[in-house]
């Protein structure tokens, strides 16, 4: 699909990228983790208090769980996670509409990333000998 960005404002281009990412076909062979818990987003402190918990999410699939916490840090967000279940030698790919970052999951199942822009993202858990486990797109 050809990307048409000529003459569009930056906000329109970013929205288009997010929409196209929702139809990304690279997940066709991946397992999809189901969103089983979501706390409603907390109203942000008007003064921008650093580290305020914005929301929590839980994704489950076949005995494996991803528990996530999203925190506010001024105009940015941080994401910390805990993987439970069978995940030896795992990495987590934090996927944005136009790019991705790969993180190593610690032996205790923890991972974190900071400095995230507001907007949509998805996670893909990669384990040796198994198809990736992906989450649906959510907003930080």
Task: Give a nutshell description of this structure.
The protein has 140 residues and is mainly beta.
Task: Please describe what this structure looks like.
- The model has no long low-confidence stretch (mean pLDDT 83).
- The strands form 2 sheets. Strands 1, 6, 7, 9, 10 and 11 form a 6-stranded mixed β-sheet that branches. Strands 2-3-4-5-8 form a 5-stranded antiparallel β-sheet, with no helix packed on it.
- Helices cover 9% and strands 46% of the residues.
- The chain is globular.
- β4 and β5 form a beta hairpin.
- It has one domain.
- With 140 residues, the chain is mainly beta.
Provide the fold topology:
Elements: H1 10-22, E1 31-32, E2 34-38, E3 52-61, E4 64-73, E5 76-84, E6 91-95, E7 100-104, E8 110-116, E9 120-126, E10 133-134, E11 138-139
Parallel strand pairs: 1-10
Antiparallel strand pairs: 2-3, 3-4, 4-5, 5-8, 6-7, 6-9, 9-10, 9-11
Rg for CA atoms: 16 Å
**Strand residue percentage:** over 45%
* Total strands: 11
Shape: globular
Give the termini separation. 27 Å
Largest sheet: 6 strands, mixed
Order of helices and strands: HEEEEEEEEEEE
* Rounded average pLDDT: 83
The stretches of 5 or more residues where confidence is low (pLDDT under 50) are none
Q: Helix fraction?
A: under 10%
Domain module tally: 1
Number of helices: 1
Please state the structural category: mainly beta
């Amino acid at each position: 699909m050809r990307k048409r960005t000529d003459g569009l404002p930056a906000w329109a281009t970013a929205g288009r990228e997010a929409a196209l990412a929702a139809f990304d076909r690279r997940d066709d062979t991946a397992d999809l983790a189901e969103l089983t818990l979501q706390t409603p987003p907390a109203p942000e402190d008007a003064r921008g208090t650093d580290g305020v918990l914005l929301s929590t999410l839980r994704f489950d699939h076949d005995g494996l769980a991803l528990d996530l916490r999203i925190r506010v840090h001024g105009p940015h967000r941080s994401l910390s996670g805990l993987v439970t279940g069978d995940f030896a030698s795992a990495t987590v790919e934090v996927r944005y509409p136009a790019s991705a970052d790969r993180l190593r999951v610690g032996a205790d199942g923890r991972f974190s990333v900071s400095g995230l822009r507001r907007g949509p993202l998805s996670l893909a858990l990669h384990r040796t000998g198994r198809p990736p486990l992906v989450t649906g797109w959510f907003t930080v």
